[in-house]
Amino acid sequence: MSSQLAEGQGPSPSQTSRPRPIPRPSPFARRALLAFIGLWLAVQILVPLRHLLYPGSPHWTEEGHRFAWQMKLRDKKARATFTVRDPASGEEWQVYPGDFLLRHQARTMPSRPDMVLQFAHYLARVWAEEEGIEGVEVRVRVCASLNGRRGALLIDPERDLVQVPRDLWHADWILPLEQPFERPPERTRRRDIEC
Q1: What is the pLDDT of residues 29-64, one digit of tens each?
Q2: In whole angstroms, what separates CA 173 from the centre of its chain?
Q3: What angle do CA 65, 66, 71 make, to 5 degrees?
Q4: Residue 69 pLDDT class (50, 70, 90 cuts)
Q5: Cα–Cα distance measured from residue 127 to residue 85, given in angstroms and rounded to the nearest whole number
Q6: Per-residue pLDDT tens for 106-139?
Q7: Which of 9, 83, 123, 166 has the most neighbouring CB atoms within 10 Å?
Q8: Do 155 and 109 touch, CB atoms closer than 8 A?
């Protein structure tokens, strides 16, 4: 190679390593990427703020509570008793969630109205499939305590939850929280929730 350079001949084009220019994305690809980033940022900001679209406290109603920035800001305990009724015969059955759910599920479900609704629809399916009774009504009495308040009804006990669709609209079957917060007295033992 030194003899080639001495003779005035440079290296051949195959021996040189020139950096190749990086191809620039097309204007369409750049706009699509910016649109995707803008959409992603909008979702990250708006989904946690959707609780502002619902009336009442999201800590009580749970509407807009999931995926929000307010997680773990409340302590809510609840107890539920379901009543399944056959309107044709008038026969009623008391249902306790622990008879159908695992312990942690039965403990969590009563404080979350969307899960209560889902469980009511499940009970209607169970009565239709296993008992052969179509068109049952499912009502629930949920007594809940938010951040140490006295127990209050969370869900309208007169409402047939089978007739309530599962959707993202405001749930008018959830009763509003009307009890102001008062510092609870010191507790030395477990407190039962009574309504």
Answers
A1: 899 999 999 999 999 988 888 888 888 888 888 887
A2: 17
A3: 70
A4: confident
A5: 10
A6: 999 999 999 999 999 999 999 999 888 889 999 9
A7: 123
A8: no
Rounded CA-CA distance 124/137 in Å is 7
Question: Residue holding tokens 């969370």?
Answer: 154
Q: Is the dihedral of CA 145, 148, 151, 153 positive or negative?
A: negative
Tokens of 28: 């369409």
DSSP the chain: -HHHHHTTPPPPTTT--PPPPPPPPPHHHHHHHHHHHHHHHHHHHHGGGGGGGSSS-HHHH-TTTTTSTTTT---EEEEEEEEEE-TTT--EEEE-GGGTS-HHHHHHGGG-HHHHHHHHHHHHHHHHHHS---S-EEEEEEEEEETTPPPEE-B-TTS-GGGS--SSS--TTBPP--PPP-PPPP-SSPPPP--
